Amino acid sequence: MSGHGTPIPMTSRRAAPLKGEAHVPGDKSISHRSLILGAMAVGETRISGLLEGEDVLDTAKAMRAFGAEVINHGGGEWSVFGVGVGGFAEPENVIDCGNSGTGVRLIMGAMATSPITVTFTGDASLNKRPMARVTDPLALFGAQSVGRDGGRLPMTIVGAADPVPVRYTVPLPSAQVKSAVLLAGLNAPGKTVVIEREATRDHSERMLAGFGAEITTEDTEEGRVITLTGQPELKPQVIAVPRDPSSAAFPVCAALITPGSDVLVPGIGLNPTRAGLFYTLQDMGADLTFENPRTEGGEPVADLRAKYSPDMKGIEVPPARAASMIDEYPVLSVVAAFASGTTMMAGVKELRVKESDRIDAMARGLRANGVTVEEGEDWWSVEGCGPEGVKGGATCESFLDHRIAMSFMVMGMGAQNPVSVDDGSPIATSFPIFEPLMAALGANLSRDNH
Ligand code: S3P
Fold this sequence. Notes:
- This protein has 450 residues and is α/β, with parallel strands linked by helices.
- Helix content is 28%, strand content 27%.
- The chain has helices spanning 28-40, 54-65, 101-111, 132-141, 175-185, 203-210, 245-257, 276-283, 329-337, 358-368, 402-414, 434-441; strands at residues 10-13, 19-21, 42-48, 69-74, 77-83, 95-96, 117-121, 144-148, 152-158, 167-170, 191-196, 215-220, 223-229, 238-240, 262-269, 287-296, 299-307, 316-317, 342-346, 373-376, 379-383, 395-396, 419-421, 444-446.
- The strands form six sheets. Strands 22-23-1-24 form a four-stranded mixed beta sheet. A four-stranded mixed beta sheet has the order 2-15-17-16.
- A hairpin with a 2-residue loop joins strand 4 and strand 5 (77-83).
- The longest helix has 13 residues, at 28-40.
- It is globular and about 60 Å long.
- Shikimate-3-phosphate is lined by residues 29, 102, 174-176, 179, 201, 326-327, 350.
């Protein structure tokens, strides 16, 4: 089992006005998919702007173990020489996906229809997370799996030697499950159909089409019906990874709650299945604008400008928006603490099975810092303290969750007293340049416990 080494305590003290440009790293979802689809194409896929966080590096290592050649040219430029659909070799050793649910679930899908046996593991966070949501549909293709109690890692999957295509309705809103089924469908003959009742991020569909697969999406009464024709020859691509809206969320939210701030976050992917946080912040009255909207690499992109917003109001976040901002609720709850009135977040039970139970983790830390939080199984609400009213002063547990650690660091920038986390090391999974990037804007972060 992998770990994160020695914990890194971190403290965020009230920041000077945040000013300047924040060039956040590449999109994590698209980075994983670039490596995996590159490994399933025949020939050289060139990737620029790849997120070089631990999660994605673990996926790169895994693709090498399956036989693809993966080359890091430096500066975010990578090449993947793929082995083709159905060309995965059996890895010599256990595949360790570290902290990454996306990595492990997508790779399970990609190998499940090849006649190879693979054992997967991860860190203490990943090894607690549910995998049956992926292995259940993979069993329909003919793959077998055996894991720990409750469908947890470490887990071994025996890929199907004679896979059959499936028709599967995803029972929960999860792009990882949808994508695992689509990737498995690549090496099954005939048409694999995935139906999702709620639209989740559609990077897999867009990228599969880009790699030359025959894939269609239809909005019907049942939901979104995605049909993939199996056993294509995927054509290698040149991919420019857009910058990650889920990472942009941190400097954007930091600027909204730090007096005097004006921050530009250029080149952010604004795929409608990902951009829910930004519309929610605007609904709360945030001074947040989209500048220079354009299309890059098939994805909508804009420069985000965020300014200090002392007049934000709590709102009811529309549950229908949950999937498009699922990773952003932790930092939204911090902004909600600096607004006036209550912010209600419902329809979010998936937050309980992320890198941590994110409702529990945020509720504990917010309460310790003087913020009132109520919660139920699939909802929580935060009572705003107003723009100057968050006390701070406490140390929060990050529970091996990068987004929990970064959210509390953001909170410290606007709170009356410093805010600490017990362990900021997981930040490196998705946003390895978080500390220098925030410091360059004017944040006051240090590696200590106040
Ligand atoms: C992701 C899907 C989401 C998200 C995760 C990335 C993806 O997970 O939380 O950070 O790249 O497909 P779920 O599929 O569990 O909702």
